[in-house]
Amino acid sequence: MEVDNSVYSYLQKQQNEVPSQLAPYFGEFEDLYERKIWHQLTEKVEKFINIPEAAPYRIGLYNEFIRDWQKHMNKVKLVLFALAAARQFDSSPTAAEFMSEIAEDVNKPDSQDAYALALLESAHFRLLLNDLDSTRDTLEKCQKMIESFSNVDSVIHASFYRVCADYYKAKAAF
User: Could you say which residues of the chain have pLDDT below 70?
Assistant: First the structure.
């Protein structure tokens, strides 16, 4: 069995470098990753990402660890993890580009809900750059997509309405 040493070395390095209250997570990540228990690993990563003290480690965690096993996880969760990382970037253009890349990664027939979510979050970062035209186009596209879904996760509806509200607020058309 071939082992990806870069993932293990990243996890071990982080386990030694992060604050003591976060270190156990990296040991658990390593164990679950090695055993290929993807659902439990996704849940553990979600817990970690929601810890405020973990904020400085989100970009590295996404790029060095989550990308390695992203094909095994729920794509909406993947987009939410990427969004948590994108919020840590210093600039909105970088975050918008990052989320656009994620959108392209999840643009598959079986993950159109995640694609819509990624597009919406990318549009939100573009809205912060005052790119109203691009944001409007994305909102129109996503509205059609969401209307065509038989079942929509509440996080997608929440993202859509949040971006719509911010768009109309920025446009001062409310």
Answer: 1-4, 173-174
- Residue 173's contacts (CB-CB under 8 Å, 6 or more residues apart) are none
The continuous run of DSSP H or E covering 50 comes out as none
In terms of Cβ atoms closer than 10 Å to its own Cβ (0-12, 13-18, 19+), residue 103 is buried
Q: What is the pLDDT of residues 33-49, one digit of tens each?
A: 999 999 999 999 999 99
Say what the pLDDT of residue 92 is. 92
The strand ranges marked E within the chain are: none
What pLDDT shows up at residue 1? 39
| Residue 21, C-beta contacts closer than 8 angstroms, at least 6 positions apart | 53
DSSP 3-state assignment of 22?
Answer: coil
Q: State the Cα–Cα distance between residues 68 and 71, nearest whole angstrom.
A: 8
pTM for the predicted model, two decimal places: 0.91
CB–CB of 18/26 below 8 Å?
A: yes
- CB count in 10 Å sphere of residue 130: 9
